[in-house]
């Protein structure tokens, strides 16, 4: 029998999991219970369990009973669903939304404690959803880099997740405050920014300060990672951005940049954020936290446990913990060993051979940065499979430090590239007598283009 909710059959309401759950209970009891007979209190409870606002919209549009219950308790239901979307950091998330709006001054925005969670407009709810998705995406990346390198989705415990989200929202709030004052004061008022940053940090416990610093460092490193990839793709309009160790974007832009391998919206946040570090140091000094204790507490901030912290490189047996590279982190390797760095692993003088490196880069590089990443990962797959390895030094299922990954490139890249050219029917020219140690290839383009310096008899004899 098809049970109906309002005027729509239950089979059409797969988008409303809570409603389906309670309808299934009625089915299991072999009773034909109409949805409106559940009672307003129970329906109110069901609506408060919905996972997002789209599901709420579907529920009230397809059921007059749900609509009436919502109209009777709109604030409490919206608050409950907002909590389901964002989590315990609801007040912090709402404050970020308010700071993103065109307020006359940050002073007009209530403090975290004074945020009214019962006054959530539709536009605020939409922003909460999109911002929460961005923070969750950043948590997945944070977990991969700092918690468990073997999982691409977050393995943070509920408490660790709460700390991370809380810290990101608070850093985000500071960036918006700093941006406002930059427009008002100008970028020469560094002392003002430092005092404001220190005043902002003074409102939190020392553990919360370390959590914010950890989140801020992670966000800044992610920006630098993206810049490092992006500049070598030849697209970046900010050639010096990868050397900056401060934030230049708000968290959603950082996540989009990382996922799409692009850099955009590099705003005045950089200039406004410069004075955070002096304020952070002054805060530690004011609270009498010495340098050794600060480093220890920073390392332990947010996370209670780390998976694989003492893991060693399969080849050199040196402990590198999370700084090991395997299949789940190969897409991240591009930010540490980018395409220019890959070319530098070619032997002899080949890295200075413009003709040869251009062909290699053209083979990997694509106008779509995501396709470039896939080509990079495919290259790694093929490098591991390229030669027989009876000693089992190189395995796609093992983990290696960056130095050993560079050794893999030095050992196999040039031979793989020669085989790839033959596979793609790219002409292999006459051998140069001096092989990859030829110095002429570095300054005479005609010589580099006319002769093969990558895999000739001279190179084979050198490698034997």
Q: What's the SSE pattern?
A: EEHHHHHHHHHHHHHHHHHHHEHEH
Low-pLDDT ranges: 1-16, 25-31, 233-245, 455-464
Number of continuous helical runs: 21
Radius of gyration: 28 Å
What's the number of extended β-strand segments? 4
Chain-averaged pLDDT: 80
Shape: globular
Structure description:
By secondary structure, the chain is an all-alpha fold. 57% of the residues lie in helices and 2% in strands. The chain contains 21 helices and four strands. It has helices at 17-28, 40-48, 53-62, 64-72, 74-86, 90-100, 122-146, 158-185, 190-201, 206-232, 251-260, 269-273, 276-286, 291-300, 330-333, 339-343, 354-364, 369-385, 402-423, 445-450, 457-463, and strands at residues 4-5, 8-9, 430-431, 451-452. Strands 1-2 form a two-stranded antiparallel sheet. A two-stranded parallel sheet has the order 3-4. Helix 20 links the parallel strand 3 and strand 4. Helix 5 runs parallel beside helix 7, helix 6 crosses helix 7 and helix 10 (206-232) crosses helix 14 (291-300). The longest helix has 28 residues, at 158-185. Residues 1-16, 25-31, 233-245 and 455-464 have low confidence and may be disordered.
């Amino acid at each position: 029998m098809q049970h109906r909710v309002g005027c729509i059959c239950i089979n059409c309401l797969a988008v409303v999991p809570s409603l389906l759950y309670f309808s299934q209970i009625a089915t299991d009891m072999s009773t034909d219970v109409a949805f409106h007979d559940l009672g307003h209190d129970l329906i109110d409870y069901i609506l408060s369990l919905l996972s997002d606002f789209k599901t709420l919209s579907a529920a009230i549009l397809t059921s007059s009973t749900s609509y009436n219950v919502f109209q009777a308790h709109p604030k409490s239901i919206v608050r409950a669903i907002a909590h389901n979307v964002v989590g315990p950091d609801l007040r912090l998330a709402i404050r970020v939304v308010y700071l993103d709006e065109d307020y006359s001054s940050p002073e007009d925005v209530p403090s975290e404690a004074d945020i009214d969670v019962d006054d959530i407009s539709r536009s605020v709810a939409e922003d909460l959803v999109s911002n929460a998705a961005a923070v969750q995406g950043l948590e997945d990346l944070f977990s991969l880099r700092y918690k468990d390198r073997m999982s691409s989705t977050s393995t943070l415990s509920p408490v660790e997740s709460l700390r991370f989200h809380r810290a990101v929202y608070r850093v985000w709030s500071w960036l918006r405050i700093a941006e406002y004052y930059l427009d008002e004061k100008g970028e020469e008022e560094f002392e003002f920014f430092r005092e404001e940053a220190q005043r902002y940090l003074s409102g939190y416990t020392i553990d919360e300060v370390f959590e914010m610093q950890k989140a801020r460092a992670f966000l800044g490193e992610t920006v630098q990672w993206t810049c490092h990839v992006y500049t070598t793709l030849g697209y970046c309009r900010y050639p010096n951005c990868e050397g900056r160790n401060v934030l230049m974007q708000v968290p959603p832009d950082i996540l989009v940049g990382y996922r799409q391998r692009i850099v955009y919206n590099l705003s005045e946040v950089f200039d406004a954020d410069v004075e955070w570090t002096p304020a952070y140091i002054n805060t530690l000094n004011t609270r009498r936290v010495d340098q050794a204790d600060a480093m220890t507490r920073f390392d332990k901030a947010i996370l209670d446990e780390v998976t694989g912290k003492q893991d060693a490189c399969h080849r050199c047996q040196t402990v590198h913990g999370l700084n090991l590279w395997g299949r789940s982190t190969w897409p991240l390797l591009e930010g540490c060993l980018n395409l220019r760095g890959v070319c530098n692993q070619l032997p002899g003088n080949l890295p200075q051979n413009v003709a040869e490196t251009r062909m290699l880069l053209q083979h990997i590089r694509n106008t779509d940065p995501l396709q470039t990443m896939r080509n990079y990962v495919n290259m790694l797959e093929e490098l591991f499979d390229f030669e027989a390895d009876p000693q089992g030094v190189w395995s796609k299922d093992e983990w290696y430090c960056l130095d050993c990954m560079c050794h893999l490139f030095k050992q196999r890249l040039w031979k793989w590239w020669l085989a790839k050219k033959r596979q793609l029917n790219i002409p292999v020219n006459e051998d140069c007598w001096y092989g990859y140690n030829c110095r002429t290839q570095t300054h005479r383009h005609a010589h580099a283009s006319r002769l093969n310096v990558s895999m000739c008899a001279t190179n084979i004899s050198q490698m034997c």
